[in-house]
Amino acid sequence: MRQEHISLWMLCIYFFFEYVRPQSLYPVLDILPWGQLFLMLAVISAMLDKSVHWVKSTQNKYFILFLFTVILSGIFAFKPSVSWEYRNVMFGWFLVYFLTITVVNTERRLILFLLAYMLFNLKMGQHGAITWAQRGFSFASFGLIGSPGWFRNSGEYAIQMLIFGSLAISFFISLKNYWGRYKKIIMFACAATGYMAVMGASSRGAQIALAAIGIWMFLKQRGGLKGFIGIIVLSIVLFQFLPEEQISRFSDMGNDKTSLQRLAYWEYGLEVFKSNLLIGIGYHNWITYLQVMVPEGLGPSAMIQEPHNIYVQAASELGIFGLVFLFLLIINAFFINSQTRKIAKYKNNTLFYNLTYGFDAGLIGFLVAGSFVTVLYYPFFWIQIGMIVALNLVSRNNNNKGSKPIIHDTAVDESKYMIRQIKK
What we know:
Elements: H1 6-19, H2 22-25, H3 34-48, H4 58-75, H5 80-85, H6 87-103, H7 107-134, H8 154-175, H9 181-200, H10 204-220, H11 224-240, H12 244-251, H13 257-275, H14 286-293, H15 310-346, H16 350-369, H17 379-397, H18 414-423
Helix pairs in contact: 1-3, 1-7, 3-6, 4-6, 4-15, 6-17, 7-8, 7-9, 8-9, 8-10, 8-16, 10-11, 10-16, 13-15, 15-16, 15-17, 16-17
């Protein structure tokens, strides 16, 4: 890390203050806007980093178009002042996205960045796993919570743990052959804390997302009978740890008060979308719009809350343009990962190859769990696509001078490897 430019340091420190939030955990530190400060320092240091250049990616174009839609919807919003109040949120993720894909531009930087990212998430993962174990793997209505800020709510925390668990497990699978028995046990335990936290968070949406990831892994697994048995055993173990109260919540799903409340929001959101088809009611205007149009509230609880669905949120607030650009970003993220997989397979880079599956799994988790919570403007998706694009760009640039990848398949004959590089 000491050999890298300060721009990588500033970017990693920004993520530390954004994800771990020590300034919230220890009020004595809360004397400066640390996140914004290190984000600006990352921008300045990136300008001084000679290795940082503009990178081309179709994802950039879709993100710019999505942001333009956000701006346009804010200008013509139901209440523009509310959109203006939240202007820094999407502009912030836009800035972090481009910093990630430009600063994280070598294999070594990518590995260092992802290790830092996983370390900051491990802080939340181990807390959740230990807390769930200490209460005897029992059910709690409040679930689990993460760091103050984006992950304070149980549902949002569980989504981040889906992303972390998927990424950490892909690392474990890639590197386990390089470790001894005890290090392997420790690293697997670290990776497992993400999915354990999801089980203890009592979020039905996140647990459905975890099941979706399991099904996707089953469809994609290449380990033959051994891999199939492994997935089945893991699924059975996780189900056995599921408290009875949580199982009963699933059986009541669709008929309980919480489900009916969400259905009421979704139904109304579709009506709002039809009435404001092009650019919606405005960025971050859902609550304000409902307070005026339906002051009596919606659903069996007669409440005014967020729509609890990222697709309804995008359609109602950003209109058809926002929804289309969001889907283009999602589809393109999976396509970029598939392209990276082909490159990694050609270069025998086991780590990069498995990382694409880790990113795919995390993205699936977000997309499924996002159907039950309002997290479109949270960091989950925007950071995920930034890392996906960075991995693709590094995989394309890696070994262009004939150097060996840091992690590669040791079974590949060196002469064949060199011949491929010469042909390239």
